[in-house]
Amino acid sequence: MAKKGRVFSGARPTGRQHLGNYLGAIKNYVALQADYECVYCIVDVHALTTVETTQELRQNTFEMALDWLAAGMYPEESIIFVQSHVPQVMELHTYLSMVTPLGKLTDLPTFKEKIRQQPENVNYGLVGYPVLMAADIVLYKTDIVPVGIDQAPHLEFTREVVRSFNYRYQTKVLIEPQVKHTEVLKVLGIDGREKMGKSLNNHIELALTPEETVKRVREMVTDPARQRKTDPGNPDVCNVFTMHKLFSGQDEVDMINVECRKAGIGCVDCKLRYANNLNKNLEPFRAKRAELAARPHYIQDVLDDGAKRARAIAEQTMVEVREAMQLP
Ligand code: SF4
């Protein structure tokens, strides 16, 4: 069946993926493969704007690719590759930077946020980050970018850059990508307050053993007003219940919804039920991951092949870009 167009998405190499990554991005990446030609990129160059050593970059890239493949992102369906393996993106980034006003970049809330987060390392790459993102997207003649509502301004920025470039060089060579709004679940960490993330150490990795998963789930913060097992609880404010809704059967969810409110079920039991259901859900992923981890050369082959396919598209775009710019 003919696919509906090309999708691009990139993610920084953060190593072993956690539930937040899975529910917020990977699940959607997998689903999109059925209808679109997908280009999925591990954006290691972007990572260089915030990490000062590259020691963990290679391992993190490998682990992330491993999780992606184990979760059902197929190299037969999608181009899966590492950003730095396609040097054309740096060239396009440079050309796009010439049509981007500096003031626009320094005014972006994301840039201001980075200055706040790492005042000791406000590097040039941070300023140009959105331009590199734009280059990533348009290099592959992307039709559609899946984004959550809060990321939509980033894509609008890319569209503006494309318009500026096409206007300056009187060309149509770059395509304005369209937004595909996706429901990006905000998964809370085990603290029940902040978004799940490695930096806060409030995450649950997909590749944990079942026992490690149980241990992590037991640490989850529940309804803070419920101090004792005999206190009635409120599932509506409990992150464990939110996760039950994603991983447990409807009967069990309904039962917890009723019993929690009248102290008919304790939090320890409730968490154990969630951990067991989560483990059951992750069984096929973990089996596939173990199988792939035993074949590290295969992961490398997938990334090498992905880079080869990505470079072919990228070079074709750059031939057209250089031509449009009438570079000598
Ligand atoms: Fe949350 Fe379950 Fe405890 Fe209710 S019983 S507060 S839903 S963990």
Layout of helices and strands, plus pairs?
Elements: E1 6-11, H1 19-32, E2 37-42, H2 44-47, H3 57-71, E3 78-82, H4 88-97, H5 102-107, H6 109-117, H7 124-139, E4 144-147, H8 152-168, E5 178-181, H9 210-218, H10 239-247, H11 250-259, H12 267-293, H13 296-325
Parallel strand pairs: 1-2, 2-3, 4-5
Q: Mind explaining what this structure looks like?
A:
The protein is mainly alpha-helical and 328 residues long. The chain folds into 2 domains: 6-187 and 296-325, HUPs (Rossmann fold), CATH 3.40.50.620; 208-290, Orthogonal Bundle (Tyrosyl-Transfer RNA Synthetase). It is 54% helix and 8% strand. It has 13 helices and 5 strands. The chain has helices spanning 19-32, 44-47, 57-71, 88-97, 102-107, 109-117, 124-139, 152-168, 210-218, 239-247, 250-259, 267-293, 296-325, and strands at residues 6-11, 37-42, 78-82, 144-147, 178-181. The strands form 2 sheets. A 3-stranded parallel β-sheet has the order 1-2-3. Strand 1 (6-11), helix 1 and strand 2 (37-42) form a beta-alpha-beta unit. Helix 7 (124-139) crosses helix 8 (152-168) and helix 9 packs antiparallel against helix 12. The radius of gyration is 22 Å and the shape is elongated. The two termini are 42 Å apart. The mean pLDDT is 94. Iron/sulfur cluster binds at residues 222-223, 226, 233, 235, 238, 240-241, 256, 260, 265, 267, 270-271.
